Amino acid sequence: MMMLVALCLLAAALLSSWQNRPATARQWPGSAAGRFAAGLILVGYGIASLLSYGLTPWLAGDALQQTDLLMQQLSLYAALPMLVCSHLAERLGHNWNRQIWGRIFLGWCVVFELARRSNTLDWVLILTLAAGLVTLLLPWLLHQTSTSTITNNKRRWQNVYFPLAAWLLLCIGQATQSTITPAAQMAGLTLALIALYYAQPLSYQMANHHSQNTVTD
User: What is 181-212 written as a DSSP string?
Assistant: First the structure.
């Protein structure tokens, strides 16, 4: 079971990284660069989990388990917040460059370390889920659903409604489960990656919409 969930997480992380892979300077926005960096951490977590849970049992030991735990925490409390922030910024019309997103990513790593030392990592995840929910609700909160060019019903379900439904499921799971197993955490992270993968076209679209309005004004 753990192997299957780890494989699904690795596949989702690779898909997210490929979606935001490096391009030329003009075609690789800062938000995509930030998501690519976060995706690499998630890929590392998927690989560490596969190594830890069965591909190489003869390597399993304290060092590998500690590496798996560190990658898990970095994924949940640094990479996932980074992904959510990048979508939130785009949907609010902030097209920051790669240098700014690099500093934001380092900032999330600092937040992770401080929260880990103060034993408040759960609050980082709760705030991340809340921010993600607000991010996916922004088309309605900003009354921009009518400006969306995603008119095809199938694409609208994929890029608008499915990500929101998946994120609501994550929030409900986090709120109703007192203890979350490692498999459930990996499954939840995989679902979050898939939701944000499908939400990305609308995030780009809203960023472009804000840019066009700024140029017009």
Answer: -HHHHHHHHHHHHHHHHHHHHHHHHHHHHHHH
